[in-house]
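My current task is to audit a protein record that another person submitted. Thanks in advance; the entry in question is below:
***
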Amino acid sequence: MQGLMRLRALTIALAGIVLAACLPGTAGSSPTASARPPSQPSSGPELAGSVSVQGDYELSASFTTRVAEHAEGVPTPPAMPASCAEYAMGFQATSQDDNARAFLPPVVQTTGKPAVFIRSMISSGYGGPGTYNSNATPGLSGGATVQGDAFTVYHSTTGSTTTLTVQPDGSGTLSFSRWRSTEVRGGIIAGYLSGTVTWSCH
């Protein structure tokens, strides 16, 4: 349990830095533990699906989470969607622009060893259900932490590809290729992680 809590904390910290850098008005800053908004009650739509990763680690697992839990670590947490259709429409990314929309795919956390924690987001440029690619939508980013014999942290960056598809019913798919390890050995990136997350909304 302590290992899973550390796994979650590591990736939330990474994702907070990545997402804060992308959100309007937060460039150059990152949320700290004291600034993180409290967890919301888990009463939103349920998201259930599967995840598979390849690269430095290989694993396949199922997961279940709720939309409400996604507010953790996000600089401006979204209001609770009342339905899967509302969830699919995303949320307002900034109070300064009513047309700027964002979207939070499900947060993935598996158990066992290796275990993976994945968090991603479209911080801006979300236009409702459809397919988005990080090459055309710079606001689409993500991070992962894998707990094997040690903790390894990965994040989307130049040279990686992240693709998100959201259906009108709130279901979707997140695919990522060559998310880069934060570890560098002799000036060379230590490794990469690729994978796919699929989910349905209930």
